[in-house]
Amino acid sequence: MSDRHRETPSPAALNDAIRTLWARAGEQRRPLTADEQRIYQVLVAAWDEAMQAQQELAA
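RE: above sequence
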């Protein structure tokens, strides 16, 4: 399936994913691993993009 057909996650869904990532590390009382840090960076960038898109739609 092409990426073009994928639905873009909402800012709320991305925020939930970010919180889940941090919660799992917190439960284990450890910092994010290198892989988790990369995932975190991608999620935050996607969240920012989704927020900007929502603001553009509202304008």
